[in-house]
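[Automated response] Your request has been received and processed.

Submitted sequence:
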Amino acid sequence: MTRPARGRFQELERETTTVRPIGHHRTSPWFDIRRDQDGTEYMGVSVRGIAILRLVLANKGTAFTQEEREALCLDGLLPPAVKTLEQQAERAYAGYSEMTSNIGRYQYLRSLQERQEILFYELLEEHLEEMLPIVYTPTVGEAVQRFNAIYQNPRGVTLSPGNIDRAYEVLGNYPLEDVRMIVATDSSAILGIGDQGYGGLAIPIGKLALYTVGGGVSPFHTMPVSLDVGTDRQDLVEDELYLGVRQKRLRGEDYLAFVDRFVDAVSRRYPHAIVQWEDLSKDTAFTVLERYRDKLPSFNDDIQGTGAVALAGVVSACKAKRERLRDQTVVIHGAGAGGVGVAWAIREGMKREGLTDEEARARVLVLDSKGLLLEDRGGMEDYKRAYTQPRARVERWRFEGDAPCLLESVRESGATVLLGLSGRPGAFDEPVVRAAAANTDRPIVFPLSNPTSSCEACPDDLFAWTGGKALVATGSPFPCVSHGGEEHPIGQGNNAFIFPGLGMGAILARATRITDAMVLEAAYALADYIAAHHLPEGRIYPPVTELRQVSIEVATRVIQCAIDEGVGTPIPGEDIESYVRSHFWRPHYPPYRAE
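Generated structure:
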């Protein structure tokens, strides 16, 4: 079987990267990545025999040399032939190709990750475009829903009401000792499928796979965390296969006391770690972000990552039609964590182009299930209030009910940009899209909700309803659309273009805080990359095959921003991009030495 040709950026990275470890502490009680006096990397191993083959990050399988087999008591425990990592990947891809369903492919890759993790990353890197929708959205959503039925191997750390008082000791049980990147979820708002209980652990596992393959964060420094505070899903509680805590979710002060203990334990056990909060419910996500962002460097991908990737796409689309962001009127359908995060980022982008806060607020309209957010609405969640419009704004509008609906808001505001984060399939129907097209020659329409089943519109319909003039990007992967004799690539507004580079940059800068400016810098780094490489060919976002190159540029800009903000450590002795490249982890097998 032949291996696929590497793209221009993959070749560039492989040739120019000499990987240096991120940390300087022991990797694990059983193995340690070291360098000898000549600077040669090697793996020192303190266990022997079959135990090595059960340590997923240490297991090289058939790639152990004969000398290593004899020194590590593996002689006779493996097939006689010695194979390279590349040969192993070819064999693994052949097995992957035998799978007939996406969930089967997901299970195959997860099983491989739990046997030989380095091989897993080699395979994922070689087939990133094909496998990203399997390890990440949309297939990971199905994996979450079926987590309890398809569970095979433990991974990461789970904290629950039963052990949270021992959080520091529990973290000490994790087999990696120098953790730098943590993705933590309480599984209360997974993708577009809501409360998934313990099954939400599949999301941090998938996110960290992208941190490694896309952002260059070594898997020897990562940790997925489930904050299992219970579930409000009675069907899960009654499911005999359910693996999580069978109680109602902790809320209010009890919930915050739980997370306080987690944050305190992380701060003491892993003082250099970055925490990414993932899939917290909208009423919790903002509270957690503000409560802890000054206690440990952390960010919320649903709020800030989604906002940054949407901002980058809208800025790119504006450049494509030779207009400015500050001149657009933006309607955002969806006022959860993602929708409000996008509203924040778009407003900040408009202010960057010279608008006042009041002017930017007037140009960004946010709707929830009850319609346009208006200042005088009663019973509104606090986090939405900064994104409301005054009642006077709509006094001359034509609408029914107490607040304008989506169609009325698009029509009456003169919206030129339509962003979907509602999780409502079909919300961008023909009347809504045609109303946007009546306001501008080239409407920007991004149905960004995940998974695919929750997407607000299909790209082919958007082109049909606008005569092929819409500028379209989606949250889930879609094929090119043929319209008017032309092929239109559909860019994916994937958070993976933001969070791996943002996290890696924060790690390398030893950031003490992840500031709003760092998040926005990640967005503009992506926008500048798109403008330099893809706008002429009509792409709003890069292909995922360029994820690593994007992450290098994002991380470089984030590090400089952290230094400028006074929250990062200056990079010694070399330019920042070279420093990022030199620490960008790639799958490889170092020589092993018995210790």
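Summary generated for your ticket: Confidence is low (pLDDT under 50) at residues 1-18. The chain has 24 helices and 17 strands.
If you did not submit this request, please reply to this message.
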